[in-house]
Amino acid sequence: MSAQPASRLLDPGFDLTLRPMRYPQFYEMYRDAIRNTWTVEEVDFSLDVNDLKHKLGPAERHLIERLVAFFATGDSIVANNLVLNLYQHINAPEARMYLSRQLYEEALHVQFYLTLLDTYLPDPVARAKAFDAVENIPSIRAKAEFCFKWIDSIQDLSRIETTQQRRRFLLNLICFACCIEGLFFFAAFAYVYYLRSRGLLHGLASGTNWVFRDESCHMAFAFEVIRTARSEEPGLFDDELAREVVQMLEEAVECEMQFAQDVLSGGVAGLSPKDMRQYLQYCADQRLAQLGMPKHFGATNPFAFMDLQDVQEVTNFFERRVSAYQVGVQGEVAFDAAF
């Protein structure tokens, strides 16, 4: 009697067997994530309140209000896609362990942004408007609609059996790794670190350091899932899918540029829509490289403050609190690196 062929990562089913472990790399990612535990209560916003009252001009305040409005719903959208679409189709218990941890981290980010909004927007009317940004702020609604398009693209798939269905699943995962976490959030991080480079909003930047590391690990997991699926089924990633990925990233850049035009509409010294477009194209090229694809835009990083942002601060916060991250940062941490 011939042995049954080993199931593949995207084969339908609900494998429960951890031994023998088929994908130890996902289990190690889960263990690393557990070691990288932090809490919102560790973020000190006391200096930020003073900055908001006394150090920010109208243009910077508009930037911050738009930014926190996007944060208010961004991670909830990612968490919904994780639960509704990703968990049921990645068929490896060790990968689902990581996804369970990622869901916790997305909830932690939502809590961080909730606390951020409650601190930054004491006026109940302004706060309610920020939480309803996907309905009343066009530039944020456009980003949400881009996300929902890709959530809905596989919402009706209870099983991914055909090659075309698996490609639809990969496009969903690629969108959330490359465009949502790898582009929309990286643009948001750039605004935060720009303000940090001017000595402003240290609490926001400190919390963002931790969110940044979480998001980088989420991207690394997604890219590993994609790499594994491609190695098991090489025909999935064909020229047509590659063209769709480039088109998706072009659309994401334009979508994020609507937000950039809004955020920077007051004229923020040191930031321009032109530079933001270049940075977004640079990030998009980094994501294509992570997929093993040639760069499309050929853009360089225009933001010197993103080359290496406060390495000593990142290193020290690992050591100064028992409940902070337990894994030290080794070497240099480049905030635009391809994780």
UniProtKB/TrEMBL annotation:
Cofactor(s) it depends on: Fe cation
Transmembrane segments: 169-194
Gene3D superfamilies per UniProt: Ribonucleotide Reductase, subunit A (1.10.620.20)
Keyword vocabulary terms for this entry: Deoxyribonucleotide synthesis, Iron, Membrane, Metal-binding, Oxidoreductase, Transmembrane, Transmembrane helix
Cofactor note: Binds 2 iron ions per subunit.
Known role: Provides the precursors necessary for DNA synthesis. Catalyzes the biosynthesis of deoxyribonucleotides from the corresponding ribonucleotides.
Homology family: Belongs to the ribonucleoside diphosphate reductase small chain family.
PANTHER family attached to this UniProt entry: RIBONUCLEOSIDE-DIPHOSPHATE REDUCTASE SMALL CHAIN, RIBONUCLEOSIDE-DIPHOSPHATE REDUCTASE SUBUNIT M2
Name of this chain's protein: Ribonucleoside-diphosphate reductase subunit beta
Organism: Lysobacter niastensis
